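Dear colleague,

Thank you for sharing your sequence with our group. We've completed the structure prediction you requested, and as agreed, I am returning the results in plain text so they can be pasted directly into your records. Please verify that the sequence below matches your submission; if there's any discrepancy, let me know and we will rerun it promptly.
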Amino acid sequence: MTVKPSFRSGFVTIAGRPNVGKSTLINKLVDQKVAIVSDKPQTTRHKIMAVVNGIDSQLIFIDTPGLHRPKDSLGTRLNKVARVTFAEADVIVFMLDALSGIGAGDEFIARELAGIKRPVILVINKIDAIDKARLDKQENLAKGLGDFDQIVLISALKGEGTDELIERLDDLIDVGPQYFPDGMISDQPEKVLVAEFIREKVLAMTKEEIPYSVAVSIEEIKARKKKDLIDVRAWIYVERDSQKGILIGSGGEMIKAIGQESRIEIESILGSKIFLDLRVKVRKKWRRDDRVIDELGY
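Please find the predicted structure tokens below.
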């Protein structure tokens, strides 16, 4: 791997409790959807890399599952993924939610980061949602969480402050190789992206009972011969028969609606019309079964 004398690169882990806006920031920085977004906890389950190329630099952002107190094997696995990326990063972005304020989850993560010998930028998100007086108060409270190299205020949704964040990060990375080629913005395979976009629609369209228990596995992505059409076959896994009934819905209405919403984004990824075959299967207590968690790639 060739290193140009003036080229700089680095890996940036985005840390924060669930739902502070990590995935929204990732999508905004690459100007394309590569990470699903939801207001449900444990939305992000994969380590997602997104690439931001500058004139003579490359920042590789790593979106991680939000650190939390785990209740099952899946939660423990997601925390492990997040912690491993701390060690891999050149710089850590610690993101807070200005709207909801600082809570026990933020304090928990701040303690996790305290012993890590990496530059840490404190990023306060959702500044567009509160007034200046409240924002000033949140910023002062945030400073008490630790000794941070820099503080940046942003709105990931609107893109406010993101240019400044990139500039600050560029100042903290060293000379290094171009890890990803020009034009590549994510390391995620098509199957993973397709599965995640289906799961995002499930999270958005179903009741609180479903989100924590759902997983999606892609059985097949296959182009039809002599037709501009791709067959996508997927399993949606839940833990209880009652959840299966909710997902299918009366007369199959819910699963049909999930398919219609998912199809729009999947077609944009694959660049073709698709035939989407969604099926629901019960796998009891799968979140506590390490074998099944491995099969699903978490």
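Summary note from our side: The CA atoms of residues 149 and 230 lie 48 Å apart.

Kind regards,
the structure core
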